[in-house]
Structures are given as C-alpha cells and as structure tokens.
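Progress narrative, work stream C.
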Amino acid sequence: MRNCQEPFAAKRPLGERALIQRIRSRVGGKPFAGLTLGIGDDCALLGPRPGEQIAVTTDLSIAGRHFRLEWHPPEVVGHRTLARGLSDLAAMGARPLAAFLSLGLPRELTVPKGRQKVWVDRFFDGFGALARTYKTPLAGGDLAESPIVAADIVLVGAVPHGRALLRSGARAGDLLYVTGRLGGAAAGLTGLRKLAIRSENRPRPPTLSSKMRDLLAAHLNPQPRIAQGLWLQRRGLASAAIDLSDGISTDLAHLCEESEVAAEIDASVLPVHPNATLKQALHGGEDYELLFTASPKARIPSVIAGVTVSRIGRMTRRRADLPDVTIRTERGVEMLEPKGWEHFQ
C-alpha cells in the first residue's frame, strides 16, 4: 500500500480505502478527552464525564449553495464545514467531543494536477487546522463519489446536565447581547463575488488591500465562539442563546418564538463590521457570533475570552398589536422583518 503521507505517484483517483487511511493519518480521531475510539471501527466510542449531557448537531454544505469551487479554496471549504457545526455547539455552551463527516466528491477532486496538492487533501488541511484549534477530532464518517461536493458534518459535544444554553429561556426584561461584529461575512461574500468577476480574465489573482483581506477573512474564515459559549454556560449568566448563522433579523425571531417573548434592537449600538452596511449586519448571516440574553442583574463584561460583547437591546412581552422583533432607529421604532437566509424561500 502506498504510504498515505507521501504524494500520489500516479495521476489517478484515490480509492475509498486509501482515502480513508489518508484522512485518518491527517485528521483522524485519535483518543482524546471524551473520545475513546476513533476512525477504524464500525462505530466511534465517546465517554463524556459523569453528570454531562450529549449535544449533537448536524449541518450540510453543498457546492453551488453554500460555497463555489471557483471562488472558495479547498482549505476554506474544509474550515467552513467544521465551523458551522462548532458554532451550534457554542450556542449551547457545549464543549466539543468529536466530529463525523460524510463527504461526497466528484472523482476529479481526488486526482492530482501536476505538482498541485489534491483538492481533497487541501480540504482536510483547512478542516484539520480548525479541528486542532478547538480540540475536535474527526472520529468517523462516510465517503462517496458524487456529481457535486457535499459535506455533511455531525458534531458531538458535552454539557453539564441541565446547564445547556437554550433558545427558550429568555424572559421579558432580559437584556440582549451579541459577540463580535456583524455583517462582515455578508460584505465579504459581496467583495469575493466582485473580485471573482474582475479576475476572470487575469492570469494571476489581484493584489489584495488590507481592507479587502479583512473583509474576506470574515467570510472565508469564521471563528466559532466556543470559548464564549463555555464562559456563559459555566457562570450561568445567559438565559437564552442562539448562533447567528442566518442573520440577526431571522435568528432573533427564532429565539423570540421559542421563548414566547418579543425583542427590541437599538440600531445605534449595533456592532456593525466597519466594511459592512446596517442591512448586511441585520440580514446577512454567516457571522457565527453568539446572540444571547441575560438578566439585568447579570454582570456581562465588555470582552469575553478576547471577543467584544455589545448590549444591543432588550426583551419585552409579546403584544398582539406589535411584531415580535422591532428596531429603534432615528425614525423611531419599526418592525424588523426576518430577511435573513431561509432555504426554500
């Protein structure tokens, strides 16, 4: 068998068994805290600590819908695939235990082109770098030949029994907070689209300004707020939480629905990314920040684990004559329609 650490000797697709060994050597689920058996058997074995509950989430990424092969480098696709699931764990205040990945690939993405690295190897470079950062081993999954790239990630985490952050815990009178800055991912996607169009007839990628690099980073390399979610969970300060994957206008509506309350945002204190518009901050999505509520008596710091935290509004009682989510602007209080991302709409 070819050494899975070495480059391909022939320009041919890698078989499934060899590809599994290759993945195992790069980002395989070696024994780790909470994971006692990883890739190689029919099932992985997880061993959470006594008194913990298991948190499980799944997220699907499809070429042409969540990323584009001609725009997004393979490392970025791998990074974003894992980041989406980790962000869900962060919103629950769960510590990651392991990841499982079902990956569908066209055959040509397993074939080397000249001296270039194989697409699938670069995918796992990005995936593995983020997995190491958040101590989340790849414990198993499935591979299949597919007409398009499809990556279905399953994340397993653990949280102390009865301590998970839920969407349903907010109460009227709670204050509303958000981590980081909003709209950067949406602005980055717009910039990436323009950059791709301008680069169609160029033999080399254009030189990126520092502003463009910052703009693209928010879209290409989102950072899940695991540390911030754990901080809130361990101190019992958040009454409810959700991650901002679809845009605050949509995700806040979900939180209000589950908690049976209403919310008012103050546009003047919303932490809008310096390269984004207010519209992008409200509706853009894929920021993967944490939106959470807390009692007015809770002392929420302005920075948690190196990330800024902003108070952006408050929770109120539902009223039949008012929408669930409103925003206060210079024009007064207006309805904030959920115009973020929603499949099939």
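Work stream C, second folded protein:
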Amino acid sequence: MATSKRAAFFKTRLEDKPGALLAVAQTLKAKNIGLVGLWGYGTQSGEAEMYCVPKDPDKFRNLAKTSGMIVEEGSGFLLKGTDKTGALVKTLDTIAKAGINIVGLHAIAAGGNYGAFLRVSAFDLSKTAEVLGAK
C-alpha cells in the first residue's frame, strides 16, 4: 500500500486569463513558499480554481492573510509509492472497505514513482487517517 501523510490544501479563485497562475507562482517564489502539489481548473463562470498543497501551510496562511487572498482550507492525504500497474488498488480497496467515499483524487507518475493527493469529506478525515496509517 502507498505511504500516506495528512496534508493541508488551499483553494482559491483566480481570473481565468493568461498569466493569472503565473502571477501566483511568482508571488509564491518571491515569498519562498514551496509546494508539494498544484492543480487548477477553469470554471463556467469565467473564473479558475487553483488548489495547492504547500510544504509549509503556515507560510501560505500568512501570505493569504497579508495579501488579502481569499482561500478555503481543507485537509487531505498525500500518497506516494512505486509506479506499477494497479499501484493505487490496495489503498483504494482499504478506503472502500472502510465505507469511506473519496471526494477527489489527483495522481501522476514520473521516474518510476507516483504521487497522489486524496480528498475525503471532513467527516471521514480521522477514519481515513486511521485506515491509511497516516500521521
């Protein structure tokens, strides 16, 4: 099964236009805020949603507070392991057998390994941490 760790994530809205994500990335770099994960989507409303998992959530919270950035914070799980066919099956099976519904999953493989970010409802966070052995 994958190794897992509980992690904070942040969601914010951006204008859905060229350079909007670049501006955020430049600000994060200038403030020395490293990320473990970053993904985003355009929406039908003309905005985009950006999600990130910072290495240091407190630094990101401070940036959001001082810059006036409106963010929603949540908690999820970072998963990682060796990339092979069916690499997530055991983890997904464990979660399903515990009766936990997955809200979101983002995964990618590179260099023989994979990493994923898993979200469940706030109600299921403790139970998920327990079944995954996450800290």
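The CA atoms of residues 18 and 35 lie 21 Å apart. No further action is required on this item.
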